[in-house]
Design brief:
The structure is a single chain. This protein has 476 residues and is an all-alpha fold. The protein has one domain: MFS general substrate transporter like domains (Growth Hormone, Chain: A). Helix content is 78%, strand content 0%. Helix 10 crosses helix 13. The longest helix is centred in the C-terminal third of the chain and has 39 residues. It is globular and about 65 Å long.
Length: 476
C-alpha cells in the first residue's frame, strides 16, 4: 500500500488544482455575475442555482451508486471521470460566455440549463475521483494524508485563480469581459490537470487490495444502499451535523462578493492581496496536517476546531457591524486600502482562519472516508461512490435552500433595483447581521450531532482487519 501511495498519490491529488480554481470561481462569482453584471433579478438567480442544486442532489447517488457497480477495462471510476471532466469544462464555458437572450426569462433559463449541465458533469468527475482516492488509501491516519495532499493541490489552484482575478479585474468587479477571461483560464487549468490525472490513474484500480469476504456490491441497488447507509449511526449523525452548516456556508459563499464590495469596501486588487497573504496559513496547515493529526482522535479534533471557527471566524464582521450600528471605532476605518491598519488585521485574521479551516476540512473528509469500511463490514458492499455522493446530498439540498434564501434576501433589500451605493451598503450590513445570527443558532445543533460519531482509530483498524485488508496495520 505504501508503494501505491508514493507512486500515485500526487497523480490523484493534482486533479484538485483545476477543481479548487473552478470551485472558488463558481461559488464566489456565479450569482454576483448574473445579478450585478448581466442584470438578472437576484431572486431568479437564487432560484436557478437552488433548483440546479436540488437536481444535482438527487443525481449524485444515482451516479455514485452506478460507478460502484460498473465494471470496465479501466475499472469502476475512470470512465465516469473522463466523461465528466469535458462536460464540466463545457458547462463553465456556457455559463460565462454564451447568451440565450437579454430578457429576465432568457437569462433565467440560460442560468438554469447551463448550471444543471455543469453540476451533473461535476458529479460524474468528482465523486468517482474521490471514491478512487478513498479506495486507494485505507489507513486511519493515512486518510489524513490523502485529504491533506488533496488540499495542498486545491490551494495551489485557488492561488492561481486569485492571482488571475487580481490581474484581470483591476479595480472593477463588474467587467463582463473579465469574467469571460477568468472562465477560460479556469477551464484551461481544470482540463490540463484533470486529463493528466485521469491518464496517470487509468490502470490503478487493478492494484487495489481486495477484501477476503464476499462482495455484494453488485447486488445492492441505490435505494437499498441508501436505506442501509442511514442505519449507520456514525454516518447519520455526521451527515446531519455537517449538512446544517451547509445553509450558513451557502449564504457566506453567495454574500462574500457583496460583503467584499459593499461592507469592507475592498477593491479587487486589495482583496486578492489579502487572500494571497492568507495562503501561507492554509499551506502551512495543509503541509503539517498529517503530523499535527498523528495519534489524535478525529471527532475530538473536529469539535475543537469547529468551536474555534465559530468563535473567532465572525469576530471581525461582528465588530464591523457594531461600528456601523453604534457609530463606534472599534476597528480601524474601512476604505483606506492596503496601507491601513485594518488591512493588516484582516490579513492576519484570514491567514489564521484559513489554516484552521484547512485542517478542519481534512479531518471531516477523513471521518467520512472511514465510514466506507464500517459500512462494508455491516453490508458486504464496497460503496465509496454511494457514500461520498450521499454525503453531499443533504448538504446540497440545504445549501440550495440557503442560496434560494440568499436570492430572496438580496431581492428584498434592494439588489434587484438600481439603488444607491449607500443603500446597498446598508442592505449588506443587514445581510451580515442575519447570516451571523443564523450561524450561532445552527452551530450548537450541528455540534451535538457531530459528537455522536463513533468511529475511532481502534474501531477503524478492527474493521480493516475483519475485512481482510492489511492496510490498517501499516505505520506512516
Amino acid at each position: 500500500m505504501q508503494d501505491l501511495q508514493k507512486k500515485y498519490l500526487n497523480s490523484w491529488a493534482i486533479g484538485s488544482v483545476g477543481g479548487g480554481a473552478s470551485e472558488a470561481f463558481m461559488s464566489m462569482f456565479l450569482l454576483y455575475f448574473y445579478n450585478q453584471v448581466l442584470g438578472l433579478n437576484p431572486f431568479l438567480c437564487g432560484l436557478g442555482i437552488a433548483l440546479s442544486l436540488f437536481v444535482d442532489a438527487f443525481s449524485d447517488p444515482m451516479i455514485g451508486g452506478l460507478s460502484d457497480r460498473t465494471r470496465s477495462r479501466f475499472g469502476r471510476r475512470i470512465p465516469y471521470m473522463f466523461m465528466g471532466l469535458f462536460g464540466f469544462a463545457l458547462g463553465i464555458f456556457l455559463l460565462f460566455n454564451v447568451r440565450i437572450g437579454d430578457t429576465q426569462l432568457g437569462l433565467f433559463l440560460q442560468l438554469l440549463l447551463f448550471i444543471i449541465i455543469t453540476r451533473i458533469s461535476s458529479t460524474m468527475f468528482f465523486i468517482p475521483r474521490a471514491s478512487l482516492g478513498v479506495e486507494m488509501i485505507k489507513g486511519y491516519e493515512q486518510r489524513n494524508l490523502l485529504h491533506a495532499r488533496d488540499n495542498n493541490f486545491g490551494i495551489l489552484g485557488t492561488v492561481i485563480f486569485y492571482s488571475a482575478i487580481a490581474i484581470i479585474f483591476g479595480n472593477n468587479w463588474n467587467r463582463e469581459t473579465g469574467y469571460e477571461a477568468v472562465s477560460l483560464l479556469v477551464i484551461g487549468l481544470f482540463l490540463a490537470t484533470s486529463i493528466f490525472s485521469v491518464f496517470k490513474l487509468r490502470n490503478i484500480e487493478s492494484l487495489f487490495e481486495k477484501t477476503s469476504i464476499e462482495d455484494k456490491t453488485q447486488h445492492i441497488g441505490v435505494l437499498k444502499g441508501l436505506t442501509l447507509l442511514w442505519k449507520n449511526d456514525s454516518w447519520r449523525n455526521l451527515i446531519i451535523g455537517t449538512s446544517l452548516f451547509g445553509i450558513v456556508g451557502s449564504l457566506s459563499s453567495v454574500f462574500s462578493i457583496y460583503m467584499i464590495n459593499f461592507f469592507w469596501l475592498w477593491l479587487p486588487n486589495e482583496f486578492t492581496l489579502i487572500l494571497a497573504l492568507s495562503i501561507p496559513g492554509a499551506m502551512i496547515a495543509a503541509l503539517s496536517a498529517n503530523k499535527l493529526l498523528e495519534n489524535r482522535d478525529k471527532k475530538k479534533t473536529v469539535l475543537l476546531l469547529t468551536c474555534i471557527l465559530i468563535s473567532i471566524g465572525p469576530s471581525l464582521t461582528i465588530l464591523r457591524i457594531l461600528d456601523i450600528k453604534f457609530e463606534t471605532e472599534i476597528l480601524p476605518e474601512v476604505g483606506l486600502g492596503i496601507y491601513s491598519l485594518l488591512f493588516i488585521i484582516v490579513a492576519l485574521h484570514s491567514s489564521f482562519m484559513a489554516g484552521v479551516r484547512v485542517i478542519n476540512g481534512i479531518v471531516f473528509s477523513s471521518m467520512f472516508s472511514d465510514v466506507v469500511e464500517d459500512h462494508q463490514k455491516k453490508t458486504y458492499s464496497r460503496s465509496e461512490g454511494l457514500i461520498i455522493s450521499v454525503n453531499g446530498l443533504s448538504g446540497k439540498i440545504l445549501g440550495g435552500v440557503g442560496i434560494l434564501l440568499s436570492g430572496t434576501l438580496l431581492s428584498l433589500v434592494g439588489f434587484g433595483e438600481d439603488g444607491s451605493i449607500e443603500d446597498k451598503r446598508e442592505a449588506v450590513t443587514s445581510l451580515a447581521i442575519f447570516s451571523t445570527a443564523l450561524l450561532f443558532v445552527i452551530a450548537p445543533i450541528s455540534l451535538f450531532f457531530i459528537s455522536k460519531y463513533k468511529i475511532n482509530k481502534s474501531i477503524h483498524e478492527d474493521n480493516l482487519h475483519e475485512l481482510g485488508y492489511e492496510t490498517g496495520r501499516v505505520e506512516i
